[in-house]
Write a structure and sequence with these properties.
Layout (H helix, E strand, L loop, with lengths): L1 E7 L2 E6 L11 E9 L2 H7 L14 E9 L11 E4 L2 E2 L5 H4 L16 E2 L15 E4 L2 H4 L1 E3 L6 H4 L5 H11 L7 E5 L3 H12 L4 E6 L2 H9 L3 E4 L5 H8 L5 E6 L17 H9 E9 L13 H4 L7 H7 L2 E4 L8 H9 L11 E4 L3 H10 L7 E4 L1 H5 L1
Parallel strand pairs: 10-11, 10-13, 11-12, 13-14, 14-15, 16-17
Antiparallel strand pairs: 1-2, 3-4, 3-8, 3-17, 4-5, 5-9, 6-7
Helix pairs in contact: 5-6, 8-9
The chain binds nicotinamide-adenine-dinucleotide and zinc ion (2 copies).
């Protein structure tokens, strides 16, 4: 089958790889119809991780069940399903507590597994014609048959729940004001989720014009961080107080405010400034325990200069980590079906799988409005 394969930094190809096989009675094989490229894939694409050449990318996958293992009880051939990017067992201590992003079974020696991701276990990615899904009864979320809402539903694999998770970590409640740093796909989904949760005012900070325009389209106030200190800009809008809550949807590849270089702690520190005393910070943006590409010795070991003193003084609280997609995907699916949520507004490009190399290049440079790309394997477009 055809798959998107990582070759070397800044290079992926679409080439033939082995077809997946059922390896365990609770596996299913899914014929992928939609699979999205994520900001997290770019960390590997740019050679910022230990990802080895040959890895098949793709953790945001939707498709149709084609083959089922003998132990699968809740799924049948032909079911349309979307899989959380987290691979999880459903029965370990963390899964039972709803923390499926930290499953203790699927990736020995590490809490958490994912498809097509370095250090996240032996699971091949779904930017391919087919995908093996382990613990399938637990990991497949059933969708209505057909292809209605395909573009909205594929976002249930990661970014819609992840954006929502940012709000959950920050405990965004009705009537509150929220500052979201980053208007990439995750930031836009956080801003959208904050509005769904009844926030009274949502700010979205970035510098990419098309992304800020999307934020404004959904009812957030766009803040361009290159036009002046973003915390100060937001304070001006909030009578000097700052916001009740804040979300970091940027992570360690954050740009300094003059956009001249990376400054990995700049968003965390901006949030400490932006959020009012006793407010809460949700950090779905990714921070890593080691970053060979970082410019200073501390950052290479995942240690950043964060204003902990100011955070203490303000009595702020912070939550962080991988999204437990399973905790939210059913409810968010039902909001889509009910017509109450249309996260697909974030998708800028839908392309055949074969165009992955160009799509990665442009998404990585954030040019030509490349905000979120959904790839369709050939058979899906033909169907
Ligand atoms: P992205 O790279 O497309 O978006 C990041 C955005 O942040 C860009 O638009 C960029 O211009 C903007 N930005 C850069 N510096 C900034 C600054 N100083 N202030 C404000 N904005 C700034 O990525 P994405 O797909 O939206 O993902 C965002 C982050 O979330 C990444 O770190 C990704 O790895 C992470 N992520 C986490 C999870 C999870 O489970 N926690 C899941 C998916 C993605
Ligand atoms: Zn993702
Ligand atoms: Zn588990």
């Amino acid at each position: 089958m055809k798959a998107v394969v990582y070759e070397k930094p800044f290079s992926v190809t679409v080439r033939d790889v082995d077809d997946p096989q059922i390896q365990h009675p609770n596996d299913v094989l899914v014929r992928v119809t939609s699979t999205a490229i994520c900001g997290s894939d770019l960390h590997m694409y740019e050679g910022r991780t230990a990802a080895e050449p040959g890895i098949v990318f793709g953790h945001e996958n939707l498709g149709v069940v084609e083959e089922i293992g003998s132990g699968v009880t809740s799924l049948a051939q032909g079911d349309r399903v979307v899989m959380p990017f987290n691979v999880a067992c459903g029965f370990c201590k963390n899964c039972l507590a709803g923390e499926t992003g930290f499953c203790l079974t699927v990736n020995p020696g590490f809490a958490g597994g994912a498809y097509g991701y370095v250090a996240m276990g032996p699971y091949k990615g779904g930017q391919a014609e087919r995908l093996r899904v382990p613990y399938a009864d637990f990991n497949c979320l059933k969708l209505p048959p057909g292809n209605e809402f395909e573009t909205d539903f594929v976002l249930l694999a990661d970014i819609f729940p992840t954006g929502y998770h940012g709000c959950e970590l920050a405990e965004v409640s009705p009537g509150e004001s929220v500052a979201v740093y980053g208007a990439g796909p995750v930031g836009l989904m956080s801003a959208y989720s904050a509005l769904l949760r009844g926030a009274s005012k949502v700010f979205c900070v970035d510098r990419v014009a098309e992304r800020l325009a999307k934020a404004e389209e959904i009812g957030a106030v766009p803040i361009d961080f290159t036009k002046g200190d973003p915390a100060e800009q937001i304070k001006e809008h909030t009578g000097g107080e700052g916001t009740d809550k804040g979300v970091d949807a940027v992570g360690y590849q954050a740009q300094a405010h003059d956009a001249s270089h990376e400054e990995p702690a700049v968003v965390l520190n901006a949030l400490v400034e932006t959020v009012r005393p006793t407010g809460r910070l949700g950090v779905p943006g990714l921070y890593v325990p080691s970053d060979p590409g970082a410019s200073d010795e501390h950052a290479r070991h995942g240690q950043l200069l964060v204003s902990i003193g100011k955070m203490f003084e303000k009595g702020q609280k912070m939550g962080t980590g991988q999204c437990n997609v399973k905790r939210y995907n059913r409810q968010l699916r039902d909001l889509i079906i009910a017509g109450r949520a249309q996260p697909g507004f974030v998708v800028s490009h839908e392309l055949p799988l074969e165009q992955a190399p160009q799509a990665y290049q442009k998404f990585d440079k954030r040019v030509e409005g490349y905000t979120k790309v959904v790839l369709h394997p050939g058979h899906a477009l033909a169907a």
